[in-house]
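Now read these lines:
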Amino acid sequence: MNVKPTLILAGLLILLSGIFFFLVQTRTVKKQDERPQVWSVEEEKIQRITIFLPREQNALTFFKDQDDRWRFEDKTKSPVDIKRWGGIVLLVSGPKSKRMIAEKADNLSEYEFNDPQMVVILGLQNRKDPLEILFGGRTPQGDQFYVKLKNSPTIYIMHSIYCEVLMRLVQEPPYPSPAKAVQIKKEKG
């Protein structure tokens, strides 16, 4: 067996492996998500979520109790149905938009922010003023909504599914099933 050709082939194999590894790493870094973040808050800091549908004159508020359970802010203070609620706090903590439409829009009524579809208000721990997010009208294609922070001139678009999930929380509230409500009452009393 000839050692010299074996060492040369082993060296080439190591060299080619190194080049392949370098190219894969470079490609992975370039594929990072470049979609703009509309807002970002720590999930744990969200204490209250209000979703208001101005056109329907309907709203609901949810709050996190001292045991970190989410409940309806109403007379009953019922807990939310965890099957429907799961992931909502993460969803409102910091979505990415499809893209930025305008850094500063002159005519907000063009995007229907004068009569928004939805307003989401996040009450945050250790923050005096809540974070308000306005969801204007749909884009001409109908599959996106215009979105902006109340105190920011920048306008983004977000997929309509994101917005519809939040709207549905008001239109079809995530109340616990009747059997679950009876169980909760028994536990309390």
The beta strands are 46-53, 58-64, 70-72, 99-102, 118-124, 131-138, 144-149, 155-159. Helices lie at 3-30, 82-85, 88-93, 160-171, 178-188. The mean pLDDT is 86.
